[in-house]
Amino acid sequence: MYEVMMYDGGVYRSDELLDLIEDLGGVVVQKSRMAQIMLITMAVPAEDRPTIEAFSKELGGEIKAVPLAGTEIAVVGPTLGRHHMPHPICDIAEQLRQYGAITVVMGLARGRGKETSQISADERAIIEEYDAAIYVLGNFKKCVEDKKHLFDDVSIPVILISGPMPDGLDEDCEGIICGVGRKSERMRRADEIEKLVEIADMTSDIITQRRIELEEDPLFIHPAEVKERLEEMVAVKESLRPAPIVLHLDGIRVKIPYEANREELESIEVLGRRLGDVARISPSRISNSSTIIRILTRSEVEYSDSK
After folding, report:
1. Domain encompassing residue 174
2. Which of 206, 174, 222 is nearest to 46 (CA)?
């Protein structure tokens, strides 16, 4: 199983670290340089972590855990209005970023009201493009319980955040954390920061379990390896959007229009195969602003070949 980690150290001899990652069969997920500081997020086989740590120590750097690196997570509130989407949602999203995740904040069009809250098919489809969803619902126990229809049909892992502890929702989501309701100020106190860490730790545990499940029937190719091929595309090089390529657990979001780039994406060669033969490529439901690539598992590719 690949393990994602981050090197934090100097620029000196960092090219040797990059060579070592390649020799071990790993891939560089992201690389950034700030003056003489180099940050390298990498995915390497878990059994080779001690080798990476020893070499990093030799360079005077350190290896940091980024358990959510290579994931994109949605933090969802009932609406975008100040009644529902003040500071806690943004604080949760920021905490997840510190764990390595790419996060987006999303409000439902008609999530307001205990009796009238709704989620449309398009909104559900957009949420399911991400690796996990964190729903932040509010301060009233009965209201939270009545809004379970907002996430009970969502196919990705869901973590529910609310003020009180709701009853009867344990089977509808992967995790529940109470004690975080609507607030009109940032979460700054020690107990509030502990709650943010608890949310991030629970998310990390759920993502780790998902990675273990994927290893039971591994993907045909790791998303980070596909990322290296996508970076060669002219459309990606010319993209002005931040982070034009975002890794998912089972694929990639590449922020270029689907229709204009479908044929080129499908024809990219990976491990001697066309990407279109070993992945499902589809437009994002967000105004066709990006393309979603879901990599098939090895068993799915073998079954397709046998057909």
Report:
1. 72-213
2. 222
Helix axes 87-98, 190-216, angle to 10 degrees: 50
- pLDDT by residue (tens digit) across 136-150? 988 888 988 988 899
Instruction: Tell whether 218 is covered by a domain.
Output: no
- By the 8 A CB rule, do 141 and 126 touch? no
| Contact (CB, 8 A) for 19 and 42 | no
H or E stretch at 42: strand 37-45
Structure tokens given for 85: 């989407």
* Predicted TM-score (pTM) of this structure: 0.87
Q: Kindly state whether residues 275 and 208 are assigned to the same domain.
A: no
Q: What is the residue type of 13?
A: R
| Rounded Cα–Cα distance for residues 94 and 87 (Å) | 11
**Which residues pair with residue 43 across a beta bridge?**
4, 27
CATH of the domain at 147: 3.40.50
pLDDT at 29: 81
The CA–CA distances, whole Å, from 126 to 77, 180, 267 equal: 14, 25, 26
